[in-house]
User: Fold this.
Amino acid sequence: MTSWQNEVGAVPLNRPGNTGLLSGYCTVFGDPDQGPKGLVGGLYGPEHNGDIHWYCKNHSIGRFRMTCRCGHRGQVMNVCADHAGPDGISKRMAGMCPPCAYPPEAAELDTESRVISTQLGLVPPWESLGSLAIRLRRRQEDIKVRMDELTEQGIIHICPLDLREVA
Assistant:
């Protein structure tokens, strides 16, 4: 382990001799010491991060952000040549714009659906036909129907992301 790596191998940006203003290391996976601010464009908070955070050891070639055709813009990040290239982040990690795939109503429904799934998992087998379990399953079905409606209306849609350099 070098002096600029922490115990999990993440590479912090504030290395000796580097102001970070004109150069730095690739941050496509978020802050190397803490991981991303939120997963799936902020739909899931940092509490969903695991113990191991991905990082890139390459030097940055510029500042970039992901954008979609609907005008959503991601956070500015330092990006290396590998991640900025044709086989980089635009090809492998940019299949969907989170705000397009999870507009506010869909994000709320998704969160409620996950809570209900957790609650259903806690229902003992002998209560699986009880009124609480039935109410939860009915609500889960209502959520599914509404999500399908939002998709049919084009409110939920898959919008690919493009990597754009910023000043």
